[in-house]
Give the backbone structure.
Amino acid sequence: GNLRLVMDYKAEIPSKEMSLVESWQSLGQTVMYLIIDRKVEGIVSVEDKVKETSGPAISKLQKSGLKVYMLTGDNSLTAAAVSKQLNLDGFEADCLPEDKYEKVKKLQAEGHTVAMAGDGINDAPALAQANIGIAMGTGTDIAMQSAEITLVRGDLNGIVRARELSNRVMRNIKQNLFFAFVYNTLGVPVAAGILFPFFGILLSPMIAAAAMSFSSVSVISNALRLRRK
């Protein structure tokens, strides 16, 4: 287990090994301890390398005005090394599942909209609580069930693409609503004969129906532009 297990069992780590542990942690590695009869008999260091795409993806999110934080069960030294590597806005280490859940809840209480990305069982409560839960397709089933969005490739670039697509969709919706409002505001009175007393212009039912169809086609064509981006 981790250092918390060592503390729970009140086991001691020799000073020589402790300096080695700290050097591993400063490199962003996760250290696990083997305890037998309340004695640390073995130490294992593993490293989950940060994907090359993670740094640029996080940078794009930050440039778009978002704050990116990391909640991790790893110790503070390992978390600090990863946070520095990715240039995060902050991090919290030694987090249990309930700690992640409470952090999300606290941010929401402060008025923030929270998107949570995770792939493990311990992320499920926070994913369910977040305004937007984002699960990695390479993660656990329970994480995917707790989230609203699943990134099939498990790549943070998927979050960037999803946000960009969402922004384009919202702009497209507003454009369509504006176009439909203006078109109908001008077209319906003309079709009703408002110009007839002044200019003798009166639309035939066929032309009015064609004009209405053109309105629908215009809105659909504008929406289909999203497929080309």
Q: What stands out?
A: The longest strand covers residues 39-46. The CA atoms of residues 16 and 22 lie 10 Å apart. Residues 164-228 form one domain. The mean pLDDT is 87.
